[in-house]
Amino acid sequence: MKIARKVQAGTMQSSDLMVFLEPAETLTVTIDSTVLKQFGELIRAKVDEVLRRHHVESGEVRITDRGALDYAIEARLETALFRAAEE
Amino acid sequence: MVTSLLSTDDLRQACDLIDASGLSFEPPFDDLVGIFQAGRLQAVGARDGRVLKMLAVAPEAQGGSLLDDIVTVLVGRGYQEGLDSFFIFTSPSQVASFQALNFHLLAASSKSALLEYGDGLGRYLNRHRQLVTPGPNGAIVANCNPFTRGHRYLVEEAAAQVERLYLFVVREERSLFSFDYRHRMVREGTADLPNVTLLDTSSYAVSSVTFPTYFLKTGDPGGALQMELDLLLFAKHIAPFFHITRRFVGSEPLSATTASYNAAMHRILPEHGIEVTELERMDAGNAPISATRVRALLAEGDSRQLASLVPETTLSFLLSREGRRVWDPKGEAA
C-alpha cells in the first residue's frame, strides 16, 4: 500500500490517538505518547506490524497517542492508510 | 459535534463564552469552531496560523472531552492546510492539561507558557544537526530587511570573538524583503567570513508565534510576556543544541520594541549561562545605520545615499532588476 496523499485519522480524546500520514521518499515513524515511557516499545511494535502487513515502504508516519489500546491503534492506522491510498 | 462558527448568533455566543473564561475575543483567526449542546455553545476554540487560541469550555461542561474534540478539529484542519505543528499560549496552571493532549512545553515564565503539538522544534533542530560544532559558539538573530553595513559590522565583530557564529535570519514573511531575498543578501554579505553559518529561525525565534509585536512595532503590553518566552525558548532549547554561549545584538536607539527586547535579553539570557554582548550601532552621517533608514530612502526613491548605509553586495542587489521590483514596483526609478 502506498501513502499517496496527506491524511489524518483519529482524535485527541483520552484512550485514542491521532495518525498523520504524508508521502515521503523514505519511511519514517515518529511516536509521541503520554504513556511513551511505559508502552512506547509496544506501540512502536504494533505500528510496525500494521505497516508491514500493508506493505508500506515509504511515507512519513506521525502518531500522537493518549493511551490507546492495541486494536484502536490498528484501526486508526488502517483507516489513515486506506484514506492515504485512495486516488 | 464540532461545527464551524459562522453566524452572528454563533459569534455572539463565542464572545460570551470566551469572555466568561477570562480570555478575550481576539481576531484574526483562520478557523473558529465550537460545540453546541441543546442550542447553547459549550466549547469554543480558534486557530490563527499555527497558533491555537481562545480555547474555552463552559464551567458545566468541563471535565469531559469537549476540549479534546475542539483541538482535534483545529489540528486536523490545520494539518490539511499544510501545517504540521501547532502552538498554544496558556497560563502556567493549564500546562498539565495540554501536556495530556501531547503538547510539549517550550517555555514557561511565571505568568504564561508556550506549548507545541507536533514536535516541530525537534524536527527543526534535527534538520540542522550536521551544522552543529563543539563551540563555544555565538548567535545573532536578525531580520536584515535589508542587510546593512550595521549588520555587517555586528556579524564581523561577533564572528571574531567566537569559534562559530550562527546567524539566524528571521523566517517570517512580514517584511518588505522576502525571506529568500533577505537570506540571499546576508549570504552574499557574509560570504567572506568562514566561521559564519546561516540558519533560519523557523517559528522559534522572533516569529509571529514567539514575538508577534516585533512586526507591529507598537507598545502592546502583552508583547513583554511573549518576548520573555521567545528568549526562554532560545536559552533552553536552541542555544544548548548549537552550543551557543554568547548572543550578540546591536544597541537600539530607535525602536522602543527592539530596545525592550534587548533589555529583556540582558535580564534573561545570563541566568541561563548565555553572555549578552551589545555593540554600539554604527553611524553614517551622524545618525545610526538601520534597515528602517534604508527603507525610508528606498520609499523616497533616493538611491544615492544607499552606498553609505549598505555593503556593496546589498547595493548591487537593491539596484538589480530583481531588487528594484521589491522597493520600486512601478519601476519609476529604473
Automatic annotation (TrEMBL), chain A:
Q: GO: which molecular function terms?
A: lyase activity
The cross-references to Pfam families, in alphabetical order and at most eight, read: ACP
Task: Name the UniProt key words of this record, in alphabetical order.
Answer: Cytoplasm, Lyase, Phosphoprotein
Where is it located? Cytoplasm
Question: Which residues are modified to O-(phosphoribosyl dephospho-coenzyme A)serine?
Answer: 14
Cytoplasm found in the keyword field:
yes
- InterPro entries reported for this sequence: CitD (IPR006495), Mal_deCO2ase/Cit_lyase_ACP (IPR023439)
Name of the protein in question = Citrate lyase acyl carrier protein
Q: Name one GO cellular component term.
A: cytoplasm
Underlying gene: citD
Question: What organism is the protein native to?
Answer: Geomonas silvestris
